[in-house]
Design goal:
The chain is an all-alpha fold and about 140 residues long. The chain contains five helices and no strands.
Length: about 140
């Protein structure tokens, strides 16, 4: 059985590919009105997260420049790491906010069905990955 984080099922509920999400939503009876509300929520989150991604790219550029220097300032590196953590935390909070808003649009039964389907999909993907993994030769 797979181990899921606290938001894996719900995160997948709002982050999937549009066609996959349509099939998922069809399978749990999400109405046209609910889909419209979810789209509005996710469009707003996407806009917010795009700006945050750009800020993250700038921090990574700063890190590359820092580590390309002949001498690396440990305090500067630590300050940059903390900025990266803060940026990641802001993005994570925004995604959680979107997931909570989407959860408010869905019924408890719909949320349960979605998380069950996401768990099933994850387990199937893990099985397939294990089947494709090369088998290590036995040691003598």
């Amino acid at each position: 059985m797979s181990q899921m984080g606290p938001m894996d099922g719900m995160g997948g509920m709002v982050l999937g590919h549009p066609r996959q999400m349509d099939r998922l939503y069809d399978s749990v009876g999400v109405t046209a009105e609910q889909r419209t509300q979810i789209k509005q929520i996710m469009d707003a989150a996407r806009t917010d997260l795009q700006a945050q991604r750009e800020a993250g790219r700038q921090l990574h550029e700063q890190a590359r420049a820092l580590f390309a220097q002949p001498t690396i300032d440990a305090q500067q590196a630590e300050a940059l790491r903390q900025q990266m953590l803060a940026q990641h935390d802001r993005a994570s909070k925004r995604m959680l906010q979107a997931m909570l808003e989407v959860s408010g649009v869905l019924t408890p039964d719909q949320r349960k069905a979605i998380t069950e389907r996401m768990s099933e999909r994850r387990e199937m993907m893990e099985r397939r990955r294990a089947e494709r993994a090369p088998v290590a030769p036995a040691r003598p």
